[in-house]
Amino acid sequence: MKILCVSDQIDPLIYSVNAQKNFPDVDAVLCAGDLPMDYVDFIVTVLNKPTYFIFGNHNLKEYKYYHNNKNPSPQTPLPEDAVINNNITKHDHGAVYAGFKVLYNRELSYTDLRTKKETPLIIAGVSGSRRYNNGLNQYTDSEMMFRLLLLVPRLILNKLRYGKYLDIFLTHAPPLNIHDKKDPCHIGFKCYNWFIKTFRPEYMVHGHIHLYDQREERIGKYGDTTVVNAYAHCVIQFPQKQDKHNTGE
Fold it and tell me: What superkingdom heads the lineage (predicted)?
């Protein structure tokens, strides 16, 4: 399957009447933060594909609708009518909020080549950036680590049931020393390095780091995980092409 990843900037290739022609074979969309919700609305309406989003450190006007407090966790109460398809939650935008949750899309199920098991697409997401001015949706590394630990029980159940913890880790900020910058706002989370090393998602998709130079790295590796900067837009193949090639397809 092909997944369109977007973050931080409204991309004219997407925000266009030709969006369907530009991305005709996309199966899902991941929004990695700092995007206006009307842009997310547009993506859902025009592409009509499963769309998941998290919040960054900007464009937080609607953050309050998804969190009842400034320190969200997987236990944050949600309206009963917000629960659909086994733990998938949505608001009025048609996109699924993935912040501080583990989500499953059974319509995008596939056979995992490593485990040989039929599995839904599993996405774990967290919102926010490193704390730099005490603004909304900003966290210290220890605060973010606590929120990651709250996801662990569900990930362990995934391992027992599907033979793996998750497929994609969706964040706004990057890991420490991978695509990040040295200023207080854009430094990565060290706890993300621990998370992807421990739970080995095939992809980590993040935003937050603007790419002004084509020579800057967009796609990197950390252990078994491919780390993708979704700035503006990027299309990824899942499972990765080398795995698909091994099937003979």
Answer: Bacteria
> What are the Cα distances from residue 213, in Å, to 206, 207, 209, 217?
18, 15, 11, 9
pLDDT of 214 higher than 90: no
Q: Sorting pLDDT into bands at 50, 70 and 90, what band is 241?
A: low
Segments forming the whole domain that contains residue 225: 2-246
Residue 113 has pLDDT above 90, yes or no: no
Rounded CA-CA distance 178/228 in Å is 10
Average pLDDT over residues 203-213: 95
Neighbours of 129 (CB within 10 A): 28
Buried b (16+ CB within 10 A) or exposed e, 149-167: eebeebbeebeeebebbbb
Chain centroid offset of residue 45 CA: 20
Q: Are 126 and 74 in contact (CB under 8 A)?
A: no
Provide the greatest CA pair distance for the chain: 52
More confident of the two residues 229 and 240: 229
Instruction: Please report the sign of the dihedral spanned by the C-alpha atoms of residue 228, residue 220, residue 56, residue 197.
Output: positive
CATH number of the domain residue 127 falls in: 3.60.21.10
| Domain total of the chain | 1
User: For the whole model, what pTM was predicted?
Assistant: 0.88
Give the model's confidence band at 36: pLDDT under 50 very low, under 70 low, under 90 confident, else very high.
Answer: very high
Interatomic CA distance for residues 144 and 149, integer angstroms: 9
